[in-house]
Amino acid sequence: MKKDLVILTLVLLLAACAHGKTENFPADVDTADAAEIIIIRNNNLFGWGFSLDVTVDEIVIARLRSGEHISFWVEPGFHTVGISKKRATVPCVQGQKYYFLISVQYTDFGFEIERISNPKGEHWISKTKPVE
Questions:
Q1: Which residues pair with 38 in a beta bridge?
Q2: Of 30, 101, 112, 131, which has the fewest CB atoms closer than 10 Å, so is most exposed?
Q3: Looking at the 3D structure of the chain, how many domains does it have?
């Protein structure tokens, strides 16, 4: 019994550490006709040990650890970017970049996602690692 509990705990810990792009990551978009979305997770110590699910239009596309960012292209139109129950919807325009920052908030969930300005986004990208 004790051995089963240890194995289950280890499996859960490994699952919480999984990160990177999922099989649903948007890849088949013509970049000439698309908008770019960059999602950045700040490198705060809170929540450092686990990954957050990143969703686009309600589909998990990646799992980000503290200090990581992803970039991808979407067709023009409204798109919803989120983490768990927190979401932001933006009308994406061809040729434009949209930056979102995941940061620690002192709420019941503990994290927030917000759209940030392009200069602030470029600053955060210089401080984080891309997920390949």
A1: 71, 99
A2: 30
A3: 1
